[in-house]
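Ticket #4471: complex job returned nothing on first submit. Input attached below:
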Amino acid sequence: MGQRRIVITGTGWVTPLGTSLDGVWSRLLKGDSGIGPVTHFDASTFVTSFAAQSPPIDLAEYLDDASAFTHAARNSRFALAAASMALRQASIKPRELAKPHRAGLYLGSGEGPHEFADYAAMQTAGWNGETRTIDSAVWAATARERMNPRHEHEQEPNMALSHLAHAFGFRGPAYNCMTACAASTQAIGEAFEILKRGDADVMLAGGAHSMIHALGMTGFIRLTAMSKRSDSPKTAARPFDKNRDGFVMGEGAGMLVLEDLEHAKQRGATPLAEIVGFGSSADAFRITDIQPDGKGAQGAMRQALMQAGIDPREPGPDGRPGVHYISAHGTGTQENDAIETSAVKGVFGPMAPKIPFSSVKSMLGHLIQAAGAVELITCVMAIKTGVVPPTMNLTEPDPECDLDYVPNAARDLNAAGGVEVCLSNSFGFGGQNDTAVVRRFRG
Amino acid sequence: MSRRVVITGIGLVTGYGIGKDAAWAGLCSGASAISPIDAFDASGFSCRLGAQIRGFSAKDYVPKHYRKAVKVMARDIEIAVGAAHIAVADAGLVTRTELGEDARAGMTHPSERMGCHIGAGLISAETPELATAFSTSRGPDGEVNLRLWGATGMNNLPPLWMLKYLPNMLACHVTILHGCEGPSNTLTCQDASGLLSIGESTRVIERDSADLCFSGGAESRISMMGMARMISSGRLAETGDSTDPLAFARPYDGSSPGGLPGEAGGILILEEEGVAAARGAKAHARVLGFGAAQSGPPAIPPFDRGVAIPGEGLRYAITAALEDASCKPEEIDAIFPLGACVPWLDVGEIEALGAVFGTRLGEIELVTLSPQIGQNLAGDGAVRVGIAAMCLEQQKLPARLHTGALPAGVRAGAAPARDARLRKVLVCTSSNGGQNAALVLGAA
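Support reply: We reran it on our side without changes. The output follows.
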């Protein structure tokens, strides 16, 4: 009995550059920026007052019964729209699955956004700053008055998952993970493992998140992790550039339909690409810093490449490196970009400088828990079109970042043999490292 | 050759105290761990009873150089860190904690062969910390003003404020403390988080991505926001001044007014059977099978409190776990269900158990823990698995507390601690959100 092969048969995204698969792709290849002033709330006095906001979602465009999702929070709305597009591409009709219990979900979605005014009013109710005590009755009464049960419910991190299950009738294994910026790559990887084991035939996998709300931005500003170039938002996201000063917050969703190849064949679906490797590791180092040698990142990449049967340090039969494009985690923080570069060099050795290695976060910002899924979809698009997206705003090279980041212009690789194999990295705060490898599908 | 998973370490932190022996003694005593809440002034809340962990700080469970880091641990994280430490001792492991930060030689297992999967909840930020910062930014109308907050107010929050509340920080601290560099994950599906984590650890070990995993979950709902959220979701009974938890917490009683909150964590050491045997470790129990499934509407949207979560998903999760374990329903000697005492969660569980076990359900002991240790959401599943493993080991069931009515054919009434012949048991859960998971355990 051979190993089950797992293919991607559908992809959908909601990004700061739009929601159509081809539309966003062509804008990425042009180097467009989705970054601008924050309009979701009044961020005018915040030291970082810009972000990459995604367009508002009218669920009626995506669902037959949008009225059931009136209260869904922004992250869930992104998830529903992206999943609906992915299922359409995969030719799976919502709620018409022959075996709903063989259709699972694995998301790396974030919590729903906070409502600042109500939340702040509750937290300060009955507070006596001098005695540092809280009047319990005043606090509880304010909570009753200002807490919206529906809104609280929608903040729970499993709500995007539950909404998708409801909207599309998936009843198989269902998980939501929160491993910060690594979450949706991890979700896709674990969904791939569930399919390989035969615990489901099809999985909807990906992530959705929005931290563009007052407390989300506050948290990252206090950590000094975000760019402060509020005077020039469109050039603020500068992965691998010497003058990078942090990441730019984004929001959105990426959803993929993963499927056992035999199941896809039986229903006549077209594989867009094959998932051939997944690796996951923990830095186990510090809560705020990455291992300086990138050991954890290297471990995740090595596991994924080994599973894919690719020797990273040797050229393939065509003389090219075994991987044709690396989608970087590439956040634009000093620490990440230097260590990710050194980790890629550690894994690929002499091949590393020959592999195009770019960060779409230079255009989309950092979609946090949704980033990995959106970036894996860019890999599928690179395989389809033979073109790899650029790293924008890379104007002053950093001696510590000396690989081929595809600076400032997309690159057409069709003359060189196209794009057959891509690797996508996601690393999370707290030391989570996840890597996926996808390959052009060949029957 | 297939790889199999055993439980070699049990670390429990519950309302009964620190450690699995405290939990076991408490559960067998017939007294509930639930009492009036004094972790904060709960006098204004409609629910004032809970299963609080008293006299516990993670400071007692971390090396000296790490004590400072406890400041950036929410209560949920502290519980996970404490439970992990106890589990390591119970499993007889040597990890980085004993050896110092850079020591690698001397560890029982190589770092890269150790994984970590810990379920977590939506961790509530501490109210006094936020109140201090927010109250610097009140506008003329008395409301907290966003512009003032952006300009200066937020600087009153500690720089690492957010890291104290990120759900993946439970696993983050545990992996750092014990040197786990293998696959690691944080599952966040409310009540199902713990069992899903144990399921994922099992699969990771089976597929040879690790030899050992720290696995489980932790959550504390004994805080102002934690309680307010549970009240808002309709999960808590209104206790008034009563001090009798059993007047409210009545699993599977359709007229139960809701459950009571708790705080708890369980971290188990799951280990590949051959690897555990080779180091002479004693197994508490075996993991025989796992399954997960999603329940259909009206589980969640459209949001409507009190609408029962259907049992269909739990039934499929249990069926999948039994199949995975090559176990027939009639081989199950006891069931450890969620039993939250919240009728809209309880009803689907009974429906699912009835569908799987038929009339034999009336002969199977249900082991309900929530009248004793409260509702612990992400902290719940692993505690139940730990207790189930101890039951298998001791061939004994803890006391069961119940003062209400039960549906016909459900064996969950009051009973003292008692001997029982236990070969295979089922631990299962539904959740607010509709995710379900089930685990079949066998005697070691």
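Chain B has a mean pLDDT of 95. Closing as resolved unless it happens again.
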